[in-house]
User: Which sequence fits this backbone?
């Protein structure tokens, strides 16, 4: 179980970094074109 938790934390951490990058790219995209995403 502990290994699974470690893996989940690692995946969550990586996912948060990817999402953060995606949000930064999304902000740039919003400046260029209207976005269909409303957060």
Assistant:
């Amino acid at each position: 179980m502990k290994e699974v938790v470690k893996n989940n934390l690692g995946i969550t951490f990586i996912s948060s970094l990817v999402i953060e990058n995606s949000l930064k790219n999304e902000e740039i995209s919003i400046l260029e074109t209207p976005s269909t995403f409303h957060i």
